UniProtKB/TrEMBL annotation, chains A, B:
PANTHER family noted in UniProt: O-ACYLTRANSFERASE (WSD1-LIKE) FAMILY PROTEIN, WAX ESTER SYNTHASE_DIACYLGLYCEROL ACYLTRANSFERASE 4-RELATED
Reaction it catalyzes: an acyl-CoA + a 1,2-diacyl-sn-glycerol = a triacyl-sn-glycerol + CoA
Species of provenance: Actinophytocola xinjiangensis
Pathway: Lipid metabolism; Glycerolipid metabolism; triacylglycerol biosynthesis
Record has Lyase as a keyword: no
Protein family per UniProt: Belongs to the long-chain O-acyltransferase family.
Transferase among keywords: yes
The protein's name in its UniProt record: Diacylglycerol O-acyltransferase
Stretches with biased composition (Basic and acidic residues): 175-186
InterPro entries reported for this sequence: Acyl_transf_WS/DGAT (IPR014292), O-acyltransferase_WSD1-like (IPR045034), O-acyltransferase_WSD1_C (IPR009721), O-acyltransferase_WSD1_N (IPR004255)
First-level EC class: transferase
């Protein structure tokens, strides 16, 4: 039994029925040539026969045990693989719509704390010769970025490779996942920033706190505006809606080239246009622009090939989404400038300052569910939008080509919608996770994202 | 907003991740003649179009609000029928096995307290021209017996009746379900006995408590044994296994006739034989016989046509299951005598005494999850076995014949297995709900129940 770090325990302590603290991934595969009607059943049976389970996937929480209310990790010596690895079917007609409904329901239930905190569901019944998997893992075990990377790292670039093992079974092509200490080499995970903040700031005196407070005032000042109250910043319920779709990276790059902006800027502009129209349709567009929280890697290469900041710091940038502006090109320009200003705030800061500053808007997540403690911090942003780099080449699972992979993240109290995108091969894959009650008709946002991109193309390309 | 009675709030307060306090029902239907491949999808769509939802199914809990920690009921003015009424598919090959796996998973997740406390899932993909429904309702809303009765009462005895409405939509053939005050006319629900106990005993002085204690000692004395420690009487986890099967009532009646025992005695003997063999196979048969808690209606007709007890009292009888005895006939005889002695204990008691005495072994359920409060009562029984009378004639849902209906009940701390049976037409339907971790291979009990009945038939018929 090993006492869990306070920072991992936090994700268990902060969890409530209203906001399960697990992340997920939906993967879509093509059935390989010659796959019979029992292909998925057979695959499921093979998965159950995998007896090698890596230590990370055998750990279960026990507690609270520590003086600070920490949990401990203990080994599950009765690991019940059939519990964790499930087989589900879709009802007819087996469209993406039915798949997303099932995924939404699976993502909205709590993991069982008496067992290792993960589930894997293989899903059949999709039309067009496809099947899917939905993976679910608790943030205390693995942060969202690492989880997504693990999913990819177990697949193969070789369509003929038949030695691909499931994510919970060693070996995989990278060994970072049993070593939490190497997390800082990961791309940005917003919730991990909270951990890092607690870890680095805990125990420091008031001088350090003053630095952080001053930096926060500085960032707020550069924004020159505050996040409005919006329909997304309210208490939430436990049920989820999930919507997902991929867009060709080339379309997004073309808009970037035509406007002198980055793929990330264009992605944010797509979100901005879609959210604007969504709120207009519901009659709930605030008269001040929405503010997005965007985690960014702040690693910048110097001429000497080194990084400007020591290591790979993650900064949370508050970005003006310009949702009050009807002109798509103007919105993109505002977003681009806002992101540049946001990054500039971090210039010359120490890593501790960067981390602390980034974590401040996320602190309500950590303290939001302690009974009786009212969060007095006003909402610092309206929606979190993360972009996680993914695999660049097509991947295969024992011959089954992965068509797409879509991240499911964590809405929480006051943050009813989360948008996480990831790149895969030549596609940018959007995963929208929302509170079912607060964010109605989430699927509509997919159509609006397409409209938003088309508007940019018409104006710029 | 109406404050909930303490007794209903109790089921919300006592609920934990480890033991959700909802009951369920699995119904199996034949597809009607001429049903096309979209029959179930169409049925689901029609169900979603039902806008009339009875008040009971619109209530959601709010709280705690009362001085005793009670919850209140409030009306859900954003009722989201699509959330409650779901459509699921089974993976191939669509056997009962796949259906029970799905049902186990559905029964193991908590209901969302931000919404009315029920879910209804219509399930397609079953072989042999069938489909199924799984209904889930919180015990605070409706006790298990009433829930099961409601499911039946909405169906029709007429195969040509096309006016059958879903359980959440008025009108149904009986109006008792919006009037909780009439619960005492129901057949026995064990958990309702806890409610009744709290309601009737709360506020009484020490004299009343003494009566109850003396009666409990009296019942314990008649048992002349105590429940052994068994594999079923341990802390449990939240995941469930569910197994279900029906047996022809005529087979059970024949054994009863041949032995001079009741259908209920024979049912208990089936359970006894099956549990004995199950524990032998696992090497975990205790050296003293298991004790079952059996809720029984104590209404007995006098020659004048009146009942011996005022009203319809529910007594919880502790029954010697004779699991140490290898002879099936001897086990049946012991069970028969134990049930007679158990009923005799209640003879001449007041209703309050009957209720209080019945509730004592169940009290750990109510207090088991208050943090820091250790239950000092030793386990008074090993397994709860309930028999709920059901519909006598075949029922139809707009032309689809119901083949079977199986109850899912509530395992709780120290009680990892619940067996509830119900009669339907000419069948006795068994529903076994267990903690997934504590009760492995629950399905095996179905085969053992059949063996157990066959053994009795061989010995007696």
């Amino acid at each position: 039994m090993a006492i869990m770090p306070v920072t991992d325990s936090m994700f268990l302590l902060a969890e409530a029925r209203e906001h399960p603290m697990h992340v997920g991934g939906l993967q879509l595969f093509e059935l390989p040539d010659g796959a019979g009607p029992d292909y998925v059943s057979d695959l499921h049976r093979q998965l159950l026969e995998t007896v090698d389970v890596r230590p990370l996937f055998r750990r279960r929480p026990r507690g609270p045990v520590g003086v600070l209310g920490q949990f401990a990790w203990t080994n599950d010596d009765q690991l019940d693989v059939e519990y964790h690895v499930r087989h589900s079917g879709l009802p007819r007609p087996g469209r993406i719509r039915e798949l997303l409904e099932l995924t939404s329901r699976l993502h909205g239930t709590l993991l069982d704390r008496h067992r290792p905190l993960w589930e894997f569901t293989i899903i059949e019944g999709l039309g067009d010769n496809r099947f899917a998997t939905y993976s679910k893992i608790h943030h205390a075990l693995l942060d969202g970025v690492s989880a997504l990377r693990l999913l990819g790292s177990t697949l193969s670039e070789d369509p003929d490779d038949r030695g691909v093992r499931p994510p919970w079974s060693p070996p995989v092509r990278t060994d970072v996942f049993d070593r939490p200490g190497r997390r800082d080499a990961d791309p940005p995970d917003p919730f991990a920033a909270v951990s890092a903040f607690v870890k680095e700031v805990a125990g420091l005196g008031s001088a350090a706190a003053r630095v952080v407070n001053e930096a926060f005032r500085e960032q707020s000042a550069t924004l020159a505006f505050q996040a409005p109250k919006s329909m997304f910043n309210v208490p939430i319920t436990g049920a989820r809606r999930f919507a997902a779709q991929g867009w060709p990276l080339e379309r997004i790059r073309a808009v970037g080239r035509a406007s002198g902006t980055t793929v990330n800027d264009v992605m944010l502009a797509m979100c901005s246009g879609a959210l604007r129209q969504y709120m207009i349709d519901l009659g709930r567009l605030p008269d001040r622009p929405l503010v997005a929280a965007v985690p960014m890697s702040l690693r910048t290469r110097t001429p000497a090939g080194e990084t400007a900041l020591g290591g790979n710091a993650i900064g949370l940038i508050l970005c003006d989404l310009a949702t009050t502006d009807p002109d798509p090109t103007a919105r993109l320009r505002t977003i681009h400038e806002s992101m540049l200003r946001g990054k500039a705030v971090y210039h010359g800061m120490s890593r501790l300052q960067v981390t602390a500053l980034s974590a401040i808007p996320l602190v309500p997540l950590a303290i939001g569910t302690i009974p009786g403690l009212t969060t007095v911090t006003p909402p610092a942003f309206n929606v979190m939008i993360s972009n996680v780099p993914g695999p660049r080449r097509p991947l295969y699972w024992n011959g089954a080509r992965m068509q797409g992979v879509y991240p499911l993240s964590i809405p929480y109290e006051g943050q009813a919608l989360n948008i996480t995108v990831t790149s895969y091969a030549e596609s940018l894959e959007f995963g929208l996770t929302g509170c079912r009650r607060t964010v109605p008709h989430l699927q509509r946002l997919l159509g609006l994202l397409e409209e938003s991109l088309t508007d940019l193309e018409k104006a710029l390309c």
